[in-house]
Structure formats: C-alpha cells, structure tokens
Design goal:
406 residues, Nucleotidyltransferase, domain 5, 2 domains, single chain, six-stranded mixed sheet, alpha/beta, eight-stranded mixed sheet
Length: 406
Amino acid sequence: MKILVLNAGSSSLKYQLIEMDTETVLAKGICERIGKGGHLVHKTASGFALDADINFATHHDAFRMIIKKLASDEGRVIDDVGGISAVGHRFAHGGETFISSIKINGEVIKKLEQVTELAPLHNPACLAGIKACRQTLGDEIPQVAVFDTAFHQTMPKTAYIYPIPYEYYEKDKIRKYGFHGISNRYVSRKAAEILNKPLEQMKMVTCHLGNGSSITAIDKGKSIDTSMGYTPLPGVIMGTRSGDIDPSIITYISNKYSMSHEEFTDILNKKSGLLGVSGLTNDLRDILKAAKEGHKRAILALAIQDYQIKKYVGAYAAAMGGLDALVFTGGIGENVASLRHNICSDMEFMGMIIDDQKNQLPGDRIISDDASHVKILVIATNEEIMIARDTAAILNAEAAGAEDRG
C-alpha cells in the first residue's frame, strides 16, 4: 500500500509518498509560491533530485505537477496514478466536529467548509488540496483527513473553557483547541517505545519547539492540557508570535497608536516573539549567535524562552500530579542542546537530571542522567507517517468491514 501525504499551505503544497509495508518514503517535496510564480523541490529515495522554478497558478496546477513527477517524469517512483492507494491530508483544525481522522466524502467536505472560520489561513488551502486530488485522480482513490486538533479533544472542560461569558462557547465555539496534535501523538508513542513502558501508564510533557511552539500535558496517552489555544498564538514565546500576554495591552496600544485590532493582531502574530524582543530576527540560530557575541536583547529573548517553557513544564507536572517523561521535539527542540540544558537545569527537585554529554549526541535518545526519576528524551517528530498510518488504518478497517459483510 502506497499512501500520498499532503500538507497544504496558503501558497505551498508539501508531499510524501510512503510505502506502508516498510514505511519507506519513496519520494517527497514541496511546491512553493503557488499563485505567485512557483518553485518545486522534489527528491526520491533512489537519489534523484529536482530543484526548479515551475509556475503554479493554483493548488490544482501544483498537484498535477506532483503526480507528473511521481508517475511519469525522470525519477518516477510509480508506474501510474493507480499506484497510489490513498491520499492523506493534514488539516490544521477540525473544531469539535472532527475528533478523529475520517474518510472524505461529500458530506465531510461540507462539514470541513463549516469549520474553515476557525483556521482561515490553513483550512481553505487543505480544502483546495482535496479538490485538486479529486480533479486529477477522480473519486476512485480514497482520501482521508487527519486533524491537528483532534488529539486535544480529550482535554477536560476545566482546561479548554475560557472564563468569559459561557454563551461565546455555546454560540461561537470559542474555546481552547490546541495544535501540534499529530506531532504529539507520534512523539508520545515513540517515547513510550524507547522507554519500554506502556503509554497508558505514563505522565508526559511534550515540548514541540519550532518557529511555532507548544507544550502539552499527556496523561495516560491523552492530552489533558496544551499551551496553544483558540488559535496558535498563545502559550510560550515563539519566532514571531507573542505567546501569552495581558489582553488589555491590545486595547491600550490600539487606542494609543490608532491601530485597528486587525493591525495589532498582525503585530502579535508576525512581529513579536523572539523577533520582537531581540529586534533582530525570528531565526533562533542567528539569535544564539548574537547572544554569544553579547547582544543584550538576544540574550534576553533566549532567557524569556527558557523561563516560559520551564514554567509550563512545572505547571503541567502539577496538573498531572507527577511526571515520568519530558520530550523535546520540533526543529528547535531537536537541535538546540543549550535550550534543553537551560530548561532542565535546577529541576532536580522534580527528579529531573539532564546528562550534558548525552544532550550533545544526535538521534532519538534519552538525555537524562541514569539517576533521573524523570526521563528526558529528544525525538524527531514525524507527522507524515502518522497521517499515513491513520489513512492506511481507515482503509484497512473499511476493507475488513466489507469482507465481513460479504
């Protein structure tokens, strides 16, 4: 079984074709600048690579090019589109409507359209990806939607209800939803595998740290709280996002500088965070370099990041009544040893001791000292394989059901 995984952005379309028998990535790539010119990066497991400017007016154009590269051009990895068993789509937001992955049909598409207002930048692009697949592949090849928010649907009301008038939840579904759920599912299961412990018996905090960052409390394999909320804006400081702030700041600055709420929301999402504090960049590599050279605001930005993540780890350990494992993932979580060291330092009172030598090594691993009660791990996330596994599971369940009925 070969599953094509798609991750559609407003002007991009990432993809991987995965052979599920061995979970081998046969080909992967990204179409960028859709509607603004176009650029394609395409690589195969055999070593073929393409990096070229190609015009994509729409997501449909981009998808047709992906199929062309997979099935007909030099370096192709399948003989024709019939070699694709199904397509799995990453969806940023499923609201309360979608609590698990689901096979896509006309009724599902209607429901997906109804929740687009919850993720106006992401979900329309995902819908465009579905339509592009239908136009190019027809209805014969099944499609599955996998939701980032679904993992967090296990949160209790005490965690997801905001203390504002309750009718805003009842009428408008304003509540904490959380994100990075697909990543959290993968790394929590991988951590249990590495530690050789049942996930259902563990209390775990995951730190998905990248340009967008979130911290999640996972108790017995289920999300009970997470730092992102109604949108991916709240929580810890991020590349360009502010994370948690006093909401009254929005009113004060908007009034003082005659800004619309939309203008200030843009500031909170695109001009704040590490960029806003450092005044330099949202790229942590450059901030780390500047901090080593003594740049005071770069040093401050890093200190704020370390402090806020540490606070969330402690808070979520308290919420769960203990902690068995702390997991770092995401581009920053996986690659910045100094950040992991700073977060785990002075946490011995919680039974957490980092081993600085292990912390410097590559790969998925335990980086805590042997004497540490709380195990600290670094795990490279793999959202694509989770999407592919969900897609394959739905197809297999459907086939088994049909066999039983027969």
